[in-house]
Each structure stands twice: as C-alpha cells, then as structure tokens.
Amino acid sequence: MSTPAKLPRWAELFLLPAINLLVALLLAGVVIKVMGESPWAALKLMTGGAFGSQESIGYTLYYATNFIFTGLAVAVAYHAGLFNIGAEGQAYIGGLGVGLVCLWLGAWPFWLVLPLAILAGALFGAGWAFIPAWLQARRGSHIVITTIMFNFIAAAVMTWLLVNVLIKPGQQSPESREFAPNAFMPALHELLAKVGITFTSTPLNLAFVLALAAAVLVWLLVWRTRWGYAMRVAGLNPAAAVYAGIHPPRVTIWAMLLSGALAGSLGLNELMGSQHRILLDFPGGAGFVGIAVALMGRNHPLGIFLAAVLFGALTQGGSQLSFDMPRVNRDMVVVIQGLVILSCGALENIFRRPLAALLARFAGRKDEV
Amino acid sequence: MPMMSSRLCLALLLALGVAAHAAAKDFLPVIVYDFGGKFDRSFNQSASEGAQKFKADTGVAYREFEITNAAQREQFMAQAAKRGATIIVAIGFTQASAVEKVARQFPEVKFTIVDAVVDLPNVQSINFREQESSFLCGMAAALASKTGKIGFVGGMDIPLIRKFALGYVEGAKYVNPQVEVFENMTGTTPAAWGDPTKGAELAKSQFGRGADVVFHAAGATGIGVMQAAADAGLLSIGCDSNQDYLHPGSVLTSALKRVDVAVDKAFTDARNGTWKPGQLVLGLAENGVDYSFDEHNRTVLTPAMKQRLDQARADIVSGKIKVSEYKP
User: Does B37 sit within 8 Å of A159, measured CB to CB?
Assistant: First the structure.
C-alpha cells in the first residue's frame, strides 16, 4: 500500500474541490436531462437564482449564515477527534435561549438585548452539548450515538414547550408570539441604508457579520492558542496528548461546549434575524448540512465559509429552480445537493490519485528541461 | 360634439375592454403547499386535487410550490406576488406568519389561508370543524369494534391533531361509554407526517393491545397505519382525502376534509370576482367535513351503522349534539 497521493497545497485546496463540484454538476445535468429539461437552462437558473440579483445574493448569504455556524460547530468538535452529529439539536435548544431573551427582554434597548441573546444562545447550545460530552469523557458513551439521540430529545422538548407553554394563546400554529421590534436583529439592507447604500429587502441580517466574526475567532482559538493546540493534539492522538500533559476528557468537554455554543448561535440568524418568533423546526436541517460544510471546507474556517456559501447558493438557487421549472421539484433539488456532497465528500479520493499523477508528470517534465 | 363624445365613449369602452381582457388573461392563481408535499395522499394532496379541478374546469393554469424550509414560505409568496399572482392559496397553519407578512406588503394580491386565521383586509381564512367528522368516525369505530378498544395515530402532538383526537374520543364514547381509546403520536419533527413505517409499527402495537379499529390523522404516515390494518385483517379509518380505495374492505370510512373544495372555490371565486376576505368555518352543515361512503367501504360500513351516523350527523348540524373543540 502506498501512502495517499500528495498534492500541492493549491491543488488540494482549490483544484480538487473545483473538479469535484464540476463532476457533481455534470451528474446533476444528466439527471435533469433525463427529466426532460435543459441542463444548461437549469444551471443558468440556479446560478442566476443564487447570485443574479441583490435579492438572490441576500437569500444565499442568509442561508449561508446558518451553515457557517453549524459548519464551525462540527469542525471544532472534529479537531478534537469528535464527530458531533448533534448540531441540529444544539441549534434548536440554542435558539430557545435566544428566543426567550427576545421574548422577555424585548422592551430593553437592542444593544443590551443583543449581547444577552448571543450569550443565551451560546449557553443553551453549549448546555445541550455538555451532557453527551460528559457522557463521552467520563463514561465513554460514544458521542455519535448520544448526539443523534439528543437531536430527538431536543425536538421533543421544543414541541412540548411550543405546544403547551410558549404558544401564543388562541391560535393553531405552535409558535410563540412575535418578539418586540427592539429585539429584531437589524437587517443588512437597513444597516446599509444608514450609510447610503440601497440594497433590496432580504432576510440577510447582522447575524451574517456575527458568523464571520465567529469564523475568525475559531481560527484564532484553534490555530493560535495553547488551548487550540492541545485540542488538536488530543484529537490526532489521545495517547500522545496524555504524554504531553494534556487531559483528553477535559478537551472533549471544552471542545463540545464550544461546538454547542457555535451551533446554538443559529437562532440569532433564523429567529432574531428573520422569523422574529420561536417556531417549530426552525433549524430546518442546517445542523446536518453543517457536517457536509465542515467536511467540504476541510474543517478550516475559510473553507467552511466558502462551502457554506456554496450550500447557501444550492439552497437558494435550488428553490429558484423549482420555482421557475415546475418539473424540477423540491426532491430534485435535494438530489442535486446530494450529488455535490457525494462527489465532494465520498468520491474525493477518486480524482486525487490521477490528479496527483498528472501534476507529478508535469512537474517531472519541467525538471527534465 | 355628439360625434366626438360617442367616439370618446367607444375609445373608453375599448380601453376598458382591453383592460378587462388583460385582467382575464393575466389571472394567475398560485398555491403553496406545506412540508408534507403535494403527494401525501392526504391533506396537501386534497388541496392539489382542488387546484387540478379548477384547471380542468376553466383551462387556467396555476403555479404551485412545495416548501423545504421555513424561510421559503415568505420567499415564494413574495416572489409569486411580484410576478403578478392574482390569488395565493397557502395550505396549512404553519404558513400563517408568512401570509401575514406578505399580505401586508402586497395589499392588492388576494390571499387564502387554510387551517389558520389571518386578520387582514386581503386575506380569506378557511378553517374546518375537524372535530365534527372525527366525532362521526369515532362513532363508526366504536360501532364496528368487537373488542371495545380502538386506536388513534396522530402525526405530531399539535393543537390541530388534538382537535381530531378529541372529536374521535367523544364520538366513540357517545356510542359506547366504556370504550377504550389508545392514542399515539408519531414523532416530534415534521418527518412525523411522512413516516409510514413508524405509522405501521404504532398501529401494530395498538392492535397488540387489543384494538381492532384505528384512525389516523398523520398525513403520509397514515398510509402505513392503513397498510398494517389491512395486513392484520382489521379496520382503519382514513383522513382528509377519501382513502377508502386504498384497501377496499379494510378501510371503514374516511374523515373527509374538503380542502379540495376550499381551494377550487377560492380560485373560482377570485376568477369570477366573488372572492371575499374574512373568516370561513366549514363543518358538516357546510359540507366542509364529512365521513365517506362509497363502493369501497360498502361491505364494512353496514346500513345499520350508516343509519346511526346519519342520525348523529343531522343532530350535530341541528345543534342537538355538541362536539367540543380543542382550544390551545
């Protein structure tokens, strides 16, 4: 067995993902062709729908914001050697924290509500991640299993709370009353209007900026602090970490707390930024998309940002596609997203070896000359 | 001068005619389904059938959308409104807040929402008294049960489903005060509306406890419930659409909720200019809900049962029987 083919860094980070994406789009094109629509027109609709206008860019980045939060959450845990599948549940419970602050303290000025909401979202999300983390650190209960189970418990808790406690009286829909306007996250078009830039009204809001800030913070924390170093060592080799004086169970707990806090911030975008109330199932699968985003982004904040924008574009472009091409329904859009995940995640190594051989040959020729 | 004015009249008439023609040509009905999707054989599908009927009757094409996440409700409705939708029909209570927002933004567009109330001058809210048809189905279940034990499988534990369950239990107790009712909910996420496997498991566990009739209010999950009843040689009761044809001889009846009629009527009224905003509540008296009786369940729903049901139906309409409504 030879070692995995080595690629130059630029090819590893940009060329390979680009090839994977292209293959996914080609496969999707075949599926669309089989359905009797023009793949070219579909591609144009999708890219136009995702980036073609201010409105579409707004929606793309709005969806991307959710994916940045959950992608970072999965990546942080991954660096500590943990596979956190519970971002969905942590986002759900974190959103509860954000929502409760907005419901109770909505009369306070926004600049007081915002830090409290951020704190509450992070605390609730981290709290929900703490139990599986503790079980893993102390009892060795596998975190993949426990975090999956905690997604279901989160859903059950939230359904019960929304149906029996938080529901606005006298209505059918299990959702809370609307937050007071003070507790609305300012939309980006409102903020831009203040500095004289006009932007179409979209749900894109300040939480996008907070997500970017979170990405920078994660980068600093994981690559520029002792704590991050300890986490990566424990993740790569727990035995060596113990030898180096690192206590892996403690790393497990702290990494999961940070992971849960990041996932819990999704409510800032979804509830405070757009829905302005607590409602059923608001994470809408973003916790699971976060896994794909983290894998595709190579668990690096910059990669996660790019992958999140890609998945935001697929979500927004895909909904535009089903809007304009009635024959391509929402399930087709899921197929296209699935192909992207398949080709970028699972099939990654298919192209790695030929590409490495090709690049090596070119490099070799250059050396001969 | 008279010449002039008649010419002016002609021009005016022409202009009006063109405008009217353009309006008729540009009539664009739009329907937005809920998470379950338009092929759930139940609630959303019933809405889809109403839209299809409208198309078959009038030849007017409609646009339709199935949502996959919460933000898309607002996005789709606003987009449809921007592209000249005349009337937008939103299916399901989860769409209420999106309808409220978009209807405010586009006061000239007509909105009809099913299963929720939105109080705006350009919104029509259609609700059903599901408890009344559930009451009749509960009666049918208690009449058909040999064990005196019956089951109920709901989708999620939400007010709408509690409304079904409450009516069902009341109807069953009306026939047989000693009847035992097993209630199960499928799940806590929207996946609960599309999980036939789990529906079948829940039905089987209720059969295991002695139930011999099971009623579902669980969207596509109910397909599994009904399959399990057919496999076990027992009885099931369908929901929303007429599902008697799925397993003839095993489906006792279906609790009909005529979402199809509501959708068709909203589109047709909007086209004819008779559409009115405000609240509509449709029950047995308005033929908005009912129980089904056709060639597929003739063998299981006996004439004696049918007679009892029709009597109760008349009593509910006249107010002699009061069915309680679940209030969240």
Answer: no
A173/B76 touch (CB, cutoff 8 Å), yes or no: no
Residue A356 included in any domain:
yes
Amino acid in the structure at residue B269: D
Tell me the domains of chain B and their CATH numbers.
Answer: 26-128+260-282 (3.40.50.2300), 130-256+298-318 (3.40.50.2300)
**A275 close contact with B: CB closer than 8 A:** yes
Q: Distance of alpha carbon A344 from its chain centroid, rounded?
A: 16
The answer to whether residue B104 scores a pLDDT higher than 50 is yes
Last residue of a domain, one of A276, A296, A316: A296
Residues B58 and B116: beta-carbon distance below 8 Å: no
In this structure, the dihedral spanned by the alpha carbons of residues A34, A36, A42 and A45, taken in order and rounded to 10 degrees, is -160
Is residue A3 situated within a structural domain? Answer: no
User: In chain A, how many domains are there?
Assistant: 2
Instruction: Supply the pLDDT for residue A321.
Output: 86
**pLDDT at residue A366 in the model:** 58
DSSP-H helix ranges across chain B: 2-25, 43-58, 70-82, 96-105, 130-144, 159-175, 196-208, 221-232, 259-272, 303-318
Q: Do B71 and A167 touch (CB under 8 A)?
A: no
Interface check for A326 against chain B (CB to CB < 8 A): the answer is: yes
Cβ of A175 within 8 Å of Cβ of B97? The answer is yes
Flag whether residue A330 sits within 8 Å of chain B, measured between CB atoms: yes
Asked if residues A298 and A219 have their Cβ atoms less than 8 Å apart, the reply is: no
The DSSP output letter for B217 is: E
Interchain CB contact of A160 with B (< 8 Å): yes
Domain boundaries, position A24: 9-33+40-52+305-369
Determine, yes or no, domain membership for A265. yes
Mean pLDDT of the region B91-119: 91
Q: What is the mean pLDDT of residues B9-32?
A: 58
pLDDT of residue A367: 56
| Cβ pair B68:A334 closer than 8 A | yes
SS3 state of residue B29: strand
* CB proximity A67 to B under 8 Å: no
- Tell me the pLDDT tens digit for each residue of A87-128: 999 999 999 999 999 999 988 999 999 999 999 999 999 999
Q: Helices (H) and strands (E) in chain A — how many of each?
A: 17, 0
Distance between start and end Cα atoms, chain A: 31
- Give the ipTM of the model, two decimals please: 0.76
Q: Which parts of chain A register pLDDT below 50?
A: 1-2, 369
